[in-house]
């Protein structure tokens, strides 16, 4: 079976050790991998994962071009990098055009690391430009384990964005919004909103996860692990243990992702 992991992270070798050390300072979860691309590829081989969507995060506006350069260097049939736009990037629309022209498919944004609320007007220009260029956005949603529980990426705010930009391909992470799942159940589950399931197993009961997946439109669910923060093999096993139908498993593990990625 083809498997696509829609939510992974890695860093250039020369900064991987420093970056991972910094990220783990305030994180209670120990990383499974060392943050290097080669380690991710070895994990993918071990777990039978064919493709990984690699989510970059620009923590400063000037990081756009270094991320672009690295993404061009590492892109392949197996590694599909997403660029990142910082909310304070004064050339955001120009950079989004570059993303499209270079053949990338979307961006990743993280409100905690980039200091914004997802329904703040200061990011509306990014959403508008992404929709115009038919690019998708993978957005960190919910709380973040390394930050105070601020309401900047909640289901309520997700709905505000989707209502404002209904044509935008907006992908919520962490089963809709990490540790805000009561709101997810009320506001997101059952609607045609993409949910990626990383960092839900072990934080929410298997019964509740299965309930969410069975109630959500089956064409709008994506498999993701948030590697290196989770074991890819274990996450596949966790999903299989839910005993979902084969048709739904196929959609979650690869076919829904293939449509977004334009895979044959």
Apparent shape: globular
Low-confidence regions:
none
The overall strand count is: 8
CATH topology: TIM Barrel
Biggest sheet: strands side by side, in what order?
4-5-6-7-8
Count of folded domains: 1
Please specify the SSE layout and strand pairing.
Elements: E1 4-8, H1 13-24, H2 37-47, E2 51-55, H3 64-74, E3 79-82, H4 92-101, E4 106-109, H5 111-114, H6 124-132, E5 136-139, H7 155-164, E6 169-172, H8 181-187, E7 194-196, H9 206-215, E8 221-222, H10 232-240, H11 246-261
Parallel strand pairs: 1-2, 2-3, 4-5, 5-6, 6-7, 7-8
Helix pairs in contact: 4-6
Brief rundown of the structure:
With 264 residues, this protein is of the alpha/beta class. It contains 11 helices and 8 strands.
Can you characterise this structure?
By secondary structure, the protein is α/β, with parallel strands linked by helices. It has one domain (4-261): TIM Barrel, CATH 3.20.20. The protein contains eleven helices and eight strands. The protein has helices spanning 13-24, 37-47, 64-74, 92-101, 111-114, 124-132, 155-164, 181-187, 206-215, 232-240, 246-261; strands at 4-8, 51-55, 79-82, 106-109, 136-139, 169-172, 194-196, 221-222. Helix 4 packs parallel to helix 6. It is globular, with a radius of gyration of 17 Å.
């Amino acid at each position: 079976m083809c498997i696509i992991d829609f939510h992974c992270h890695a860093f250039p070798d020369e900064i991987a050790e420093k970056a991972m050390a910094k990220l783990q300072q305030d994180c209670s979860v120990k990383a499974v991998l060392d943050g290097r691309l080669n380690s991710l590829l070895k994990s993918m081989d071990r777990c039978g994962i064919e493709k990984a969507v690699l989510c970059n995060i620009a923590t400063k506006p000037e990081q756009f071009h270094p991320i672009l350069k690295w993404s061009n260097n590492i892109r392949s049939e197996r590694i599909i990098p997403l660029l990142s736009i910082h909310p304070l990037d004064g050339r955001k629309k120009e950079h989004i055009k570059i993303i499209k022209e270079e053949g990338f498919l979307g961006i990743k944004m993280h409100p905690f690391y980039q200091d914004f609320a997802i329904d703040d007007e200061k990011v509306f220009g990014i959403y508008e430009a992404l929709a115009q260029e038919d690019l998708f956005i993978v957005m960190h949603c919910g709380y973040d384990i390394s930050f105070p529980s601020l309401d900047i990426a909640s289901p309520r705010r997700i709905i505000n964005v989707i209502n404002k930009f209904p044509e935008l391909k907006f992908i919520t992470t962490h089963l809709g919004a990490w540790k805000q799942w009561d709101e997810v159940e009320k506001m997101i589950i059952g609607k045609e909103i993409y949910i990626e399931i990383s960092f839900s197993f072990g934080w929410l009961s298997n019964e509740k996860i299965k309930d969410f997946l069975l109630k959500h439109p089956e064409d709008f669910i994506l498999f993701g692990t948030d590697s290196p923060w989770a074991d890819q093999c274990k996450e596949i096993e966790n999903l299989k243990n839910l005993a979902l139908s084969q048709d739904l498993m196929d959609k979650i593990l690869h076919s829904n992702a293939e449509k977004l990625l334009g895979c044959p």
